[in-house]
Specification:
The protein has no helices and eleven strands. The protein is mostly beta strands.
C-alpha cells in the first residue's frame, strides 16, 4: 500500500480474488509523539476488493447496501461516495446548504465512486460549513451531512 498525503489517496493492488474482504489496521503518529504535544491513533478499516477498471465486476449490492459515504468527514475539499451496483441505474449525488439551496450535483454509473470536490455549480470552492447530501441509486436513497473546513 502507498499513501499520497497531498490528495489523501491510498493505493493498493490486492493479490486476492474480487469480492474478498480484508481488514487493515492503520496507525497514525504525529511527528512530536511521544511528547505531550503529539499523539497517535489507530483504526481498523474494512476493504472490499473490487475492480477499479470494471465496476460491474463488483458483487451486486442488496437493497440494504445503500450508498455509503467514504469521506473524509470533515473535509477540506473532496468527499467520496461508494455507490451500490444497480444494473442499468445512474447514481446521483445532490449537495445542498442548510437552507435547502442546491449547491452541486454529481452523476455517474451505479457501482462507481462519486466525488464531490467541495465546489459549487460554478466551480468555486464552497465556504466552510455544514452541507447536506442526498444520494440516489435506483430506488435506494441515503441522506446525511458533510462538514467542510478550510
Amino acid at each position: 500500500m502507498t499513501f499520497n498525503p497531498s490528495n489523501c489517496t491510498l493505493a493498493w493492488t490486492p493479490s486476492v480474488p474480487l469480492g474478498t474482504t480484508r481488514y487493515v489496521k492503520f496507525q497514525v503518529v504525529t511527528d512530536t509523539w511521544p511528547t505531550e504535544n503529539g499523539g497517535s491513533d489507530q483504526i481498523i478499516a474494512q476493504f472490499n476488493v473490487v475492480s477499479a477498471l470494471q465496476p460491474q465486476a463488483a458483487a451486486s449490492a442488496s437493497a440494504s447496501d445503500a450508498a455509503v459515504p467514504k469521506g473524509p468527514n470533515p473535509t477540506r475539499g473532496a468527499f467520496a461516495f461508494a455507490t451500490p451496483l444497480v444494473q442499468g441505474a445512474m447514481a446521483t449525488l445532490i449537495v445542498s446548504d442548510l437552507s435547502g439551496r442546491r449547491i452541486a450535483s454529481v452523476r455517474g454509473p451505479a457501482g462507481s465512486r462519486l466525488v464531490w470536490e467541495g465546489r459549487d455549480g460554478y466551480g468555486q470552492p464552497v465556504p466552510p460549513g455544514i452541507y447536506v447530501y442526498r444520494m440516489e441509486v435506483g430506488r435506494q436513497r441515503r441522506e446525511g451531512k458533510v462538514v467542510v473546513v478550510r
